[in-house]
Amino acid sequence: MAPGIHRIPLPLPMDGLKAINVYVVEGDDGLTLIDGGWAIPVARELLDRCLRSIGSGFGDITRFLVTHVHRDHYTMATVLGHEYGAEVALGLPERPALELLHGIGRGELTESPFLAILRSAGAPDVAEAWAAGRSEEDLPDPKDWALPDTWLDGDTTVQVGARAIDAVHTPGHTPGHYVFADRADGLLFAGDHVLPTITPSIGFTFPVEPDPLGSFLASLTKVRALPDLRILPAHGPVAPSSHARVDELLVHHEDRLAHCLKSLKERGPSVAAVVAGDLGWTRHERSYADLDLFNKGMAAMETKAHLELLVARGEATEEQTADGIVYTAV
User: Fold this and answer.
1) DSSP 3-state assignment of 10?
2) pTM above 0.90, yes or no
3) What Å distances lie between residue 147 and 81, 96, 99, 283, CA to CA?
4) Which residues belong to any copy of the Metallo-beta-lactamase domain (predicted)?
5) Which CATH architecture has domain 5-110+141-247?
6) Is 234 helix (H, G, I), strand (E, B) or coil?
7) What is the SS3 assignment for 305?
8) What would the pLDDT profile of 47-66 be if each residue is shown by its tens digit?
9) Termini Cα distance of the chain
């Protein structure tokens, strides 16, 4: 990517996303990895092999800078950090999610927090199917979700060898998401905040945030105010311009908001899952009915996030009912 900076795509055990990009930054005091990957054997073996190809190993990792708490970014970092004594840094607003995961792993919660979100989105059938498909193997392993050594709080600068990297808090995809800007080399380690070919999920996080899409759009504007940087994303290829991609994402979400409002005006009061049925999904504009079970849930939650922003803007109202939250165009 640049002198002393390497990209390692690690495999993911899912159909939608094939790989996560982990970035290795060399320094006088060892290696800093931005994100760690999913703690599965095949990913660990590949990471080990790739580090050895540059004359290093797990013992040379001194720090993980993790963009956010999702398992494909965090779990390998916390496992290797514990085993080899590497520092793990994560955004402070991710702490409530980690504490909830520990509670689930200890059996303190009887169901996934996402089920309540799906019911509030008017998708109880999806919630029931998600619950039916869960097994004991799905419970989080506490060793994969240990608390980090360092909490990132607000915007700060992290010294990585000779590099001064700006850690920029960008909530939206998750409350504690961070991007890392290397201004000297013109690079943006963008995590899931700015992806070059897809849009990150919004609303798929817990505890529930009051306006995740509003936070995401504000964070996009914040990143737009940085210099134009080359995007090193967590998923997908490197892209040349953070400014150009942020502009595209802002336009995309304004278009989605307009379609959600149009649906409410034409249908009348509706839950999020009904509005999701009026939208196209993925780059292929697939219908909501044609999505698989997991992606139906994601679509319902993301539509709910758009409707919540319409409420925050004063363009819609919301009412809690037995069928979920019902939204009405103003």
Assistant:
1) strand
2) yes
3) 11, 11, 9, 36
4) 19-235
5) 4-Layer Sandwich (3.60)
6) coil
7) helix
8) 999 999 999 999 999 999 99
9) 49
